[in-house]
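Hi support team,

I'm filing this because I wasn't sure whether my run with zinc ion finished correctly. The job status page said complete, but I'd like someone to confirm that the output block is well-formed before I use it downstream. Pasting the exact inputs I used:
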Amino acid sequence: MYILGIESSCDETAAAVVKDGHELISNVVSTSVAEQALYGGVVPEIASRRHVEFISDTVKKALDDAGMTIRDVDGVAVTFAPGLIGAVLVGLNFAKALAYAADKPLIPVHHLRGHIAALYLSHPELKPPFLCLVASGGHSHIVQVQDHTHYKVLGRTVDDAAGEAFDKVARTLGLGYPGGPAISKAAREGDAKAYRLPVPKVEGRYNVSFSGLKTAVLNAVNQAEMKGEAIDVNSMAASFERRIDEILAEKLLLAAQDTGADKICIAGGVAANSLLRCLLNEGAQKLGAKLYMPELRFCGDNGAMIAAQGYYELLDHNIGGLDLNGLATLPIDYNGQI
Ligand code: KG4
Ligand code: ZN
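And here is everything the job wrote out:
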């Protein structure tokens, strides 16, 4: 079965064709990230406008690259939640029109379910149940993936998402947007032991909290400024990256140990972080669990992950009507009741 996937929930306008939930046929990503970088973060109105400009060509190229027309696909999958609502609506309305005109099923896909489905593209042999950390710009969840469309959230951030913390700290350090890659690059030249950053206390065994960490960096920068001292940006980036990655890895491994998970996964933009990948490799080996990580090209937002998840939603008869609405927030375990 061939599914066309469409994604527009943040600053990437993306479309892809995927066969049977794991075989990549085409993948096109257009992005307004360079323009967003001028403002130090995503400006929702700019994201929406660029989606409107990019969406037709992006979807057309995904079909062209696949050597297909809309008649050849078995369904149109689209991110309908969660995300920047103006941005989500562009992809959703485009997908609705396309599905209606071509008489194809419209398949609503939850963005975080899509991030998890990126794993099936990189590891076609991977099947639920497994444990997954989904860490992006808007969410940080530790999730038990029970089957391809059923999830149990074990832990989450109580304040900032991991990607959001990377972005905010990068901004404080003058490293630009997006913060994750910028922090990693600076960290390579720094000493991770140079600054002692706190381990935030948080209720809930698998919950995480990053706002205290972010504030600690901000305070250090402000205090240095007041004293007329220079902060060692590379070492602060390294200290921050190590602390946040240690917290993420520790919580995921703790959840894996408690639940006896033999398959541990990560997904979402933050899953591209090489130190996190390294820490989890070591930790999973110690636990005797197998670690699965998406290829870097599938960590950030893309249409292929939406098409992959769309396949499983279609098999589960999760089909949307023309009255389907976009939502800024929606739990990952909504189970069909939209
Ligand atoms: O999943 P994603 O592409 O979009 C959302 O759904 O939010 O995640 C974007 C987030 C940004 O906050 C970005 O800074 C972070 O992922 N990110 C990283 C890395 N690459 C992207 N964070 C840490 N290390 C990276 N290498
Ligand atoms: Zn995302």
